[in-house]
Amino acid sequence: MRILLTGATGTLGGAVHTALAARGHDVITVGRRAGDLRHDLTDPDQITAVYRAAGALDAVVSAAGDVPYKPLAEMTPDDWRAAFHGKVLSQLELVRQGLPRVAERGSFTLITGILAGEPIPTGTAASLANGAVEAFVRAAAIEIAPQRINAVSPNVFTESLDAYGDFFPGMGSVPVADVARAYVRSVEGSQTGQVYAVK
Asked: What Pfam families does the record point to (predicted)?
């Protein structure tokens, strides 16, 4: 398959790239500062440019999404907007613009996270964004068939515990390679409207 992968240079994106390429897929990588295509996908016009440059696709895979982590009392309207643009709108727009550019039976795989259902202090923006993406996936699945759409919802990565472990006390972690396998399942499988939890 010919697959567009966003967030390809991050911890997750690198693992997903490795997993998909190892299975013989042709992966086109997108990142802000590195990758085959370099664009900021929080800008809808740059998403348009990505699709024009990428050409025909069988699947679109998103491994990117930024949200602020702050106590609720310190959140500002700009913080909420940053969460929406960084993780929700960018992925929704990736799907909307991709519908005519992805094969009739192609697929989209988005990224959410464990905080949609298991919130933590300072994580309100992440919980909000993840929940919105998951709701969108379920709703979009009933409209875009025979194209498919799923999401992957991981726990904190084992490889990232040094940086983020203190935010997730007692919640364990998952190897990023396990999360990448969930992406393979979404891309190569037949299900749609699913949220694949990797805990």
From this structure: adh_short_C2
Tokens of 17: 């790239």
Q: Kindly list the distances between the CA atom of residue 170 and the CA atoms of 21, 36, 161, 166, in Å, as whole numbers in the listed order.
A: 34, 38, 12, 9
- Please, which residues bridge with residue 37 across strands? 30
Tokens of 49: 């440019």
Using omega within 30 degrees of 0 as the cis cutoff, is the peptide bond preceding 146 cis?
yes
Q: Which CATH class is domain 2-198?
A: alpha beta
**pLDDT, tens digit (0-9, with 9 covering 90-100), for 140-187:** 999 999 999 999 999 999 999 888 888 888 889 999 999 999 999 999
Average pLDDT of span 113-139 = 96
Q: What is the DSSP string of 61-123?
A: EE---------GGG--HHHHHHHIIIIIIHHHHHHHHHTTTEEEEEEEEEE--GGGTS--TT-
Write the CB contacts of 58 (distance below 8 Å, at least 6 apart in sequence).
1, 2, 3, 102, 103, 106, 107
Selection from 111, 126, 117 nearest residue 164 by Cα: 126
Residue 169: other Cβ atoms inside 10 A: 8
Classified as helix, coil or strand, 181 is helix
Backbone angles phi, psi at 114, to 5 degrees: -60, -25
pTM: 0.96
Mean per-residue pLDDT over the chain, rounded: 96
